[in-house]
Amino acid sequence: MTRIVLGIEYDGSAFFGWQWQEGGLRTVQDEVQKAASRVANHTVSVICTGRTDTGVHALEQVVHFETDAERSMRSWQLGMNVNLPDDVRVIWAQQAVGDFHARYSAIARFYRYTILNRSTKSALQRDRVTWYHQKLDAERMHLAAQSLVGSHDFTAFRALKCQSLSPMRLMYFIDVYRQGEQVIMDISANAFLHHMVRNIAGVLMAIGSGEQEIEWTQVLLEGKNRQVGGVTAPPHGLYLGGVYYPEQYKLPKHPIFEKLPANAQRFNHGDLSK
Fold first, then answer.
1. Deepest of 185, 212, 245, 249, by most Cβ within 10 A of its Cβ?
2. How many domains would you assign to the chain?
3. Rounded distance, CA 223 to CA 83, Å?
4. Do 118 and 223 fall within a single domain?
5. Taking Cα atoms as reference points, which of 227, 167, 174 lies closest to residue 197?
């Protein structure tokens, strides 16, 4: 059997998240598995880096699957794209090297949260950005976010129903900046808890609007109480931006990972689930 690795982008607007679900709900995993199975001419099951929720997008989700079908990498990419709906695309395909695993081999994940910060909603971007009408101070948000960098217990920023065995995560960097009418948050960690990025975005928007003080992120982090952690930001502006793997696996790497510390390595907290 050969292990194939894919980089996939998708618009999550019309999906009930990544993971296959009973009842015929439309999911990204189901569409990818059906397309891969048609090209392989046998049933294929794909494993992803991390599950995304309903309405969340991906600039580069990484998956792998096993097959005994002999196809070129170009054939996997083109063949699957012919069989995928318009809101999902395979952007690259490679044969796995060594013991590669899409989830467990990852050193870092990168997410981007995009906020449209203007007085009116967008007709064109309504499902791809989060709209926030109050003026946001991106520099204030960036400053507040820096207390989250490092290894911390992120209980205050995880969903109450999060199933991860540990709240510990290692945050490599978080940058907040303005581009015209958009305020963008780029965030990277070894792994993320359920709703962690959206909860951080909600807190930072409250700080950026002046509703809360800059020190609120630190207070929440130390308090470890999700119930006082503010609102969960909507999914529309959230994108899985990319995944970083050790060089030995010879996979494409998003330029943003140049920001990772030189000694970045997987943080052993026992559970990398989203």
1. 185
2. 2
3. 49
4. yes
5. 174
Token pair for residue 177? Answer: 């900046």
Q: Where are the alpha helices (DSSP H) in 102-211?
A: 138-145, 196-208
Question: Whole-angstrom Cα distance, residue 181 to residue 148?
Answer: 25
CA distance 112 to 106: 18
Q: Which CATH number characterizes residue 198's domain?
A: 3.30.70.660
The ranges of the chain with pLDDT < 50 are 266-274
Q: Which two tokens stand for residue 207?
A: 């700080």
Q: Verify whether residue 53 is a known catalytic residue.
A: yes
Containing 91, the helix (H) or strand (E) segment is: strand 88-95
Report yes or no on whether pTM surpasses 0.85.
yes
Token digits for 255?
Answer: 């330029």
Given the residues 11, 30, 53, 186, select the one marked as catalytic. Answer: 53
- Are the beta carbons of 154 and 193 closer than 8 angstroms? yes
Q: Dihedral of the CA atoms 16, 113, 80, 45 (nearest 10)?
A: -60
Place of tokens 């308090």: 223
Q: What is the pLDDT of residue 273?
A: 38
Instruction: At 187, list the tokens.
Output: 């965030």
In the three-class reduction of DSSP (H, G, I as helix; E, B as strand; rest coil), residue 82 is classed as helix
